[in-house]
UniProtKB/TrEMBL annotation:
<protein>
    <submittedName>
        <fullName>AAA family ATPase</fullName>
    </submittedName>
</protein>
<dbReference type="InterPro" id="IPR011604">
    <property type="entry name" value="PDDEXK-like_dom_sf"/>
</dbReference>
<dbReference type="Pfam" id="PF13086">
    <property type="entry name" value="AAA_11"/>
</dbReference>
<dbReference type="InterPro" id="IPR041679">
    <property type="entry name" value="DNA2/NAM7-like_C"/>
</dbReference>
<dbReference type="InterPro" id="IPR045055">
    <property type="entry name" value="DNA2/NAM7-like"/>
</dbReference>
<dbReference type="GO" id="GO:0004386">
    <property type="term" value="F:helicase activity"/>
</dbReference>
<dbReference type="InterPro" id="IPR027417">
    <property type="entry name" value="P-loop_NTPase"/>
</dbReference>
<feature type="domain" description="DNA2/NAM7 helicase helicase">
    <location>
        <begin position="648"/>
        <end position="725"/>
    </location>
</feature>
<dbReference type="Pfam" id="PF13087">
    <property type="entry name" value="AAA_12"/>
</dbReference>
<dbReference type="InterPro" id="IPR047187">
    <property type="entry name" value="SF1_C_Upf1"/>
</dbReference>
<feature type="domain" description="DNA2/NAM7 helicase helicase">
    <location>
        <begin position="553"/>
        <end position="641"/>
    </location>
</feature>
<dbReference type="InterPro" id="IPR041677">
    <property type="entry name" value="DNA2/NAM7_AAA_11"/>
</dbReference>
<feature type="domain" description="DNA2/NAM7 helicase-like C-terminal">
    <location>
        <begin position="745"/>
        <end position="952"/>
    </location>
</feature>
Amino acid sequence: MRHIFNAILLEKSATQITVRFTEDNKIFTNTIDFPAEFISSISLAEIGEKVHLLHCLGENEDLFAKYVIIEPDFLLDISSIAECIHEYGASPFFYLYNRAKKRANTRPILLGNAANFFLDEIIHASSIENISYNNLLSAFFKRYAVDLSACKDLQDKTQEITFFQDLKLHFEHLYSLVTDIFPRFNINRHAAILEPSFLSPQLGLQGRLDLLLLSDDRNVIIELKSGKAPFPENDYHLIGVNHQAQSALYQAMVQLVLNIDGTKLDTYICYSRYGEKKGLLRKNNASDSFIAKVLDIRNQIVLVDKYFGQNKILPERYFGGINGANMIEDVYLDTRFISNYILPPIEKIGKIYTSLNPLEKAYYTAFYKFIVREIRACKLPSQEIFAHAQSSLWLQNLEEKKADGRILINLQLLSIEILDNGAEILRFQLLENLEKADFRIGDIVVLYQYNLDTDCSICQQVIKGTLLKWQGVNIDFLIRNKQSELALPINALFAAEHDYLDSNNGFMFQSLTEFFQLSKERRRWIFQPNIGINECKKLTHYTSNPLVDNVLLQAKQAKELFLIVGPPGTGKTSIALHNLVKEIFLDSRKDILLVAYTNKAVDEICRAIASITNIDFIRLGTSISCATEFRSHLLENKISQCVNRIGVQNVLANCRIYVGTLAAIQSKSEIFKIKHFDIAIVDEASQILEPHILSLFAAEDFEGKAAIDKFILIGDHKQLPAVVAQDCSEPLENLLIENGWASLTQSYFERIYRQFYGNQQIIGELSMQGRMHEEIASLANQLFYQNQLQCVPLVHQKGTLNYLKIPDNDLAQIIANKRLHFFPYSSVEKDAVGLIANICATIFELYQLNQWTFSPKKTLGIIAPYKDLIAAIRKELHQLGIADLNEIDIDTVERYQGAQKDIILFAFGIENEKQLLQQTSNCIEMDGNLIDRKLNVAITRARKQLFLMGNERFIGQNDIYVRLLELI
C-alpha cells in the first residue's frame, strides 16, 4: 500500500483516472481505479487538476486508490464538511448554505458552549474534588455573559428554567465521564490533550478535535456533542451521520498526520445530554466507503467554489443549487420535520439571488466571487504571493522559508503564563541568529515543536496564536486555546510560521447574505443612499476653527449618511470625531457606536473621546489588543461585577457609547439585540472593503429593525485602501461600471465620494492640517491635494530647526539643518541598512547633546517596504547598543497609516523593476491627477523632519517619484 502525491489529472472515465506524477526523480503515467463514491467530484474536475491518491493497492499499472483528494492543498475545516452530511441528504450546497447563514445565539448553541467549557475545566482541574457545578456555572456566566443576556430563547421563562436544568445535567454527565468512565477506559485525564489542531494536506483537511489521548498501546479521540442523538433516542448506539462524518475525518487525519496504526486509534462521540446508561459515550466505526463519500463532498465543495470564482459556473446554477430538491433526498422532502424546520431557511437563502433586480444580481455575484477568490488567494500559492499562502507551510522547504524570513526556528519555551480568560502567553528565547525575519507584532502564527530536522507543521499538532512581544531574543506568543502540559514541554524547541484565519472572510459571506435579505428600502444604502439635511439642527458646541465647525454642522444635519474626508494631519480622529461625539453626547440622549478597522485606530478613538465631560464608554475586544489605559472600559471588565443577566442587560443598555474594531463588533453582534444605536461613526472607512461594512447596514435590533439609524464615515480615499491577497484584474460587469463601481477593492467610502462628488449634503472636507511642518506638507500638497491643504498653524509648523550643538560631521550637519533630505544609495543590503542605523544614531546623539527628551514612540520612526528589510534594520539598530533605538517603530507604510512621529525615515527599498511595480501599484486617478496612495501615506507621517533614501536608478523610472525628488 502506498500514497501518490502531487499527481496531475490527465484523463478520466466512470471508473478510472489517468494521472502523471514524479517519483524518485522519474515521471510516471498511471491509470488508476477509484471507488464509486468519488464519481461526482471526478466528473466535475477538469483535466489538469492536482490530486492525491491515498492507500493505493496493487502493483505497477494495476492500481486501486482508496481515496482521491482533488486540490489537496486547499484545506477545508472538517466540521464544515461534516455539516454537509445529514440523514435526509448530503450535498456540497449545504456548505454554501451554512456559510451564508447568520451566526446564531440560541439556547442549543449556548448549551454546546457550556458543555465544552465544563469539559475543559474538569479535565484541567488541579484537584477534581474541588470542582462544583455552582463554581463552574459562575465562571461560565462570566465567559458568556453577553451571549446569555442577549439570547432571545432565554427571555421565555419556561425555556430559561429548562436551560439551567439542562446545564446541570450536562455538567453531571461530563463529571461522571472524567471521574468514572475515564479510569475504566484507562484514560488519564492529565494526559489528555484538549482541542489540538492539525493540518493535513494529504487529505485536504484541517481541524480541531475536542479531546485526544496518545499512548503507546492505545489512542483515543473523543468528540463532544451537546444535542440530541438520532431518533430513536432509546437506541443508545446510534450516532448522527454528521457526527459520524466529523469523527471519521478526525480519525483519518490523525492517523495520517501522526502516523498511527488505525487498529490502535478509537474514536468516540460523547453525547453529554445522556447519562452513561443511555449512551453517553458511543464508539464510531466508520467504513472506508462512508469516509470516501464524505471526502467526495469535500472535493465537490472545493471545485464548485473554484469554478464559480473562475466564471466557469453560472450564478443561476451556483446559487440555484441551494434548494430542497437539490439538497434533500426525495423520500424526506414531504415529511413534517423537513417541511417545518429544515426547508424554510434553505429556501429563504436559496431564493435571494432570484429575488434581486439585475443591478443587485450583478453586485451580489461580483462580491461573492471576490470573497471566494480572496479565500483561495490566502490558501493557495501564486507567483506573486507564494509566501503569503497557507499552503507555503508545507510547499516551501526550510531553506526557502529561511530565505524569505517566513519561519522562526530554535525557539526555546521558557515559561507559560495563564490569563484570567483562559488564554496563555508562551515565553520563548530565540536561540538562533536570524538573517531575515518577516514577522511583526500582531501577526497570527502556527507554533509546533521543532526538535528534529524532520519536524514540520503537518506531522504533529499545531498551536495557533499571535505574536505578542519581541525584544532582542525574547519572544512572546498569545495562544487562543488553553493547552495541556504535554503539548508545551518547558525547554522544548519550537518553530513559528505564519497562519491564516478564515473567519474574516467568512463574515463577508454572512454580511452579503444578511444585507440582501433586507427590505428594498434598506437595500438602497448600497445603490442610492437617502440624501438630505435637517436644517433645524444646529451646533451647540463650537471649536476654535470655523471650517471644522461647518463640517460638524453638515454631519449633524445629514439625514442618514455623511462622509468626512480628511487628508493627512487634519485631525479626522482627534478633532472631527472627538467634537462629533462631544456634540451628540452632550446635546442629546442618543447612543453612539464608534468603529474603526484596526485596534490601533480604536485606541486613538478612545484617546480622542476620553476627555469629554462625564463620558463613559464600552470598549469591545480583548485586553491584549487594547491599550493599557483603556482596559477598564473593556466589556468584560464593565460587566465583571454583574451576577445575573438583568445586571448585564442594564450595564449594556445604560452605556451610550460603544467602541470597537469592525471585526470585534461582528463577533459580538449580540450587542445589537440589547442595544439600538442612533448613529455609527466609522473611522478608517476608506480602508474597509464594501462587504465588510454591509454588516453594519444589515445589523438588526431585538425588534428586527435596523440597529443603526445613521452613519458618518471618516476617511481619505487618497490614502491606502484595504489590503487584499488576490490579483484584482478581474473585469467588472458593465452594469456595475455604469453605476459607479471601479473596482471591488474600492471602499464604500470612496465609491460614494465619487458618486456624490461636490454634494455638501453628504460630503464634508477638512483642509486644516496640524501635523506636518509646512515644508513637509508642501510635498503631498503639491503632488496629491492641489494645494488645498493649509497649516493651522501650530508652533512646530512654522518654526525653524534649533539644534544648538551639532557634531562636526557631514551627516550630523544635514540632519541638524534640513527638514527634508534625500539620501541616495546603490544597494539596500550593503548601503541602506547601515545608512539608516547611522542616521538613527546621529539623531539620538543630537538629542542627547541638546538635552532634549528622546521618546522612542514619538520622536523617531522608520518606514520600509518589506518585512525582511525591517528585520535587518532592527538587527542593525540592536547592535548599536542604544536601548531607546530598540523601541522605535519600524514598519511598512500600510502599518504606519494613521501614525505620526517627529522624524520619519522612509526607505524606498526598490532594487528592481518588479519591486518598483509593487511599490507603485496603489495608484488611482482623481480630478485628472495620478495619486500614489502608498507614497502619500509615507511622506505625511513626519511632524518636523522627513528623510528619504533610495536607489536613484529605479526611482528615476517613476514620474511621481521624480517629481517628489524635484520638490525636495
